[in-house]
Amino acid sequence: MGSIGTFGSFTQARLAIYAAHKGLSVTGNNIANVNTTGYTRQRLEQSSFGASGADRYYSSFDSRVGNGVLCTGLTQLRDPYLDIRYRGEMANVGSMDAKLGGLENIQAVLDEVGDGDDAFGIIEAQLSDLVAKLRQLSDQTGHSLYDIQVRASADTLTKQLNAYASRLQEVYKNNMASYQQDVSKVNGILTNIRDLNATIRKNEIHGDNSLELRDERNVLIDQLSQYMKIDVTYTTEELGGGQTVEKLIIKLGDANPDGKPGGTDTTTLIDGVYGAQLSTTQVPKPNPDFDKTKPDNATDNQRYLDVDGNKTNDEKKAAKIDDPNLGLTVFTLVDGRGEPQYTTKVGAEQPSDDIAYNAATVIDGKRKTIEKNADTGVVTETVFRKEKQKDGTISYFATVYTHTPTTQPVDLRDNDLYGALQSQRELLTRSGEFSTDAAIQSDPNAASQRGIPYYQKSLDLLARQFAQTLNAANQGYVYDEKGNYVKGTMDADGKITRGNPSFFELKDPTDPTKTHTLKRTDTLKNAPEWVTKELGIADPQKATEEEFQQKLGKYLENNGGIKLGEPLFSNRGDGNETKDITAANISISAKWAEGPQIVRSFQLPSAMDKIPSTESSNIDHMIYLFEKKQDYKPGTVQDDAKGKDVTMFTGSFQEMWSNIGSVLGNDMKVTSTLLDAYYASSVSLDTSRDSVSSVDFNDEAMNLMQYSKSYSAACRLMTTIDSVLDKLINGTGA
Fold this sequence. Notes:
6-stranded antiparallel beta sheet, about 40% helix, alpha+beta, 15 helices, elongated
């Protein structure tokens, strides 16, 4: 006798028909979703429905068979290892893609190939035009028309530099808007993943695997992996009574490993039904007048400003602004209702009194008081109860539940992120060789990372060095043919009356026999040390050439030197101020705009009382300066740059301009090469994932035939059993 009754065979056939029909449904669903983004191929899981226990009557030969087939569930065909590798590679792709996109925006401003005359760039062509106009002025010294032509050419150059600076600032604003938008996108992705987790959890409790929702969640996780490197893990959550559900946890992917457990580079973003949000880190508003060299305890020298603009050293009282370094803060994990994830500590029950009991509020049938600390988020819940004693008195008791948020807001460090967000942030903050010591301490790689600020400062450096060089060349003191600076006065007609003595002869205070006549060739290196001290330099060993020339000029000005010239360029068109000239504000000075200002020569021959009107040595000197190799140092525009005195480039003005483009081109080439490599790897991994997870028509066609035959066979089995039983019931004994 078998393990099932006479009519048990019907159950076998019925279950076989059901399994085959369900298999056809799963196969049909796979085929229907062949073009659905993110869809993961589903498979019907089956198991044999075996008999349990022993038959009451059985032969010595064990003839027990199973009761049929059971459909135990649906599963998805995914390879977790490939998911991990793919998402890690997508962080690389997102990082390089965002960086290349930003560099291409900069290139759209600075790439001038073929834009200027004779296929030269606009700035380079204008520099050449200015030199040509100076040569014409040199040949036609004294003709105001040619001075005007030089001024017009220089004015065009300044306006072009202004336009380039404006366009770079526009690129910065656009990238800032894109960065803020991407932070919002990431927050939206995190919110959607958290909400999907809550829905999947609820469905799983009721026996539904929610495979389609898991597909939707996987698509979101893939998107998130482009913005930041993440670590995705699946654990189980105990519900009680032996029941468990799946729990998804997403953390930052250890992009800045420092060997410290629990570091900010592994901050939790998703913990089951709880999720975090990102926002630009808020920092105290700095006092722009704060002097680091003075104590900060003085009432007039404090670090911050409060909301009313008052000075303060208290960070809590200071007004808050977005971090200039665009750092991000990960906020406390909360659920869909905005409630934080808590860790609860239950205190021992303590005696209380009727006053506290009656003052409590009835919540969920219990008397409670609930208090929340605004700073820490800790919720203190006190639950009261009363109890009647044997003597008839009433006693009161209280139990304190301390609910502490599982996570607190975390300010991410400089390299805790890796992906599109970090690349966009670096595009907006990194200034390469212009990096400050604070920036390099925060990120040792900062000096080699060039974002929009690097190219803005490089353009400023070119503009400032150009203006300083020509302004210095057009201002000086009269000297004779031997190079000795001349004492005297000059009237409005340019006539010079020599002083007595005519030259600046200094004597060594320690040895009157030693004298030195100040010359235009004097430098910090070749002038005697006692001369530099006489000029007002206390420590010649620590002085710079720029300081020496300033002190020399001041000495000549205060002691009867004959000064010629005015600045040609200023930081605004209606003034003559030369401080802090940048590409955005460089202008023709007001003095030059009024009329001819270019000094023809500073050399006064010994036998003359006027500089010859045909002399053009200073104009020739200016022309030479356009060809001269100059050292460009970050400190010229960034006083607190770490390598402010390190030469970042040596060359002429035109070569410096070309170098800016060359640096940009090299950065783009390296980034593009890395992007191609990362993208090819991601495509390969995605193809491998698809080979496991995507729908294959050949496989599904085989499944259709298999389940169709199984269905037909099960139906035939049902018919056969029906025929046999009909004979047994109606034909036996007839």
